[in-house]
């Protein structure tokens, strides 16, 4: 992790929840494990979706560019 990323993570732990911080740290690992399946699944979604409980937004990277997202 480079110094800029570490700074961002430190700020998140001060202003956000520890749980969100941990999920953010694990995001790259989870992408390596599940990324291919998620890209396949999310690529088949319609251009307008509703996500209930998006958390830290870990799934946003898998949405097709231009997708209209309503996050609740």
Fold and architecture overview:
- By secondary structure, this protein is mainly alpha-helical.
- It has 2 helices and 2 strands, in the order ααββ.
- It has helices at residues 3-15, 18-42, and strands at residues 48-51, 68-71.
- It has a two-stranded parallel ribbon with strand order 1-2.
- The longest helix has 25 residues, at 18-42.
- The model has no long low-confidence stretch (mean pLDDT 81).
Layout of SSEs?
Layout: H1 3-15, H2 18-42, E1 48-51, E2 68-71
Parallel strand pairs: 1-2
Report the total helices: 2
Quaternary organisation:
single chain
Characterize the largest beta sheet: strand count, sense, and whether it forms a barrel.
2 strands, parallel
Separation, N- and C-terminal Cα atoms: 31 Å
At a glance:
Helices cover 53% and strands 11% of the residues. The protein is mostly helical. It starts with a helix and ends with a strand.
Features:
72 residues, mainly alpha, 11% strand, globular
């Amino acid at each position: 992790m480079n110094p800029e990323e570490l700074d961002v993570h430190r700020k998140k732990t001060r202003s956000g929840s520890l749980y969100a911080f941990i999920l953010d740290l694990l995001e790259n690992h989870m992408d390596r494990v599940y990324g291919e399946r998620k890209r396949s699944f999310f690529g088949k979604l319609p251009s307008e979706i509703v996500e209930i409980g998006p958390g830290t937004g870990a799934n946003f990277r898998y949405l097709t560019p231009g997708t209209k997202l309503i996050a609740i």
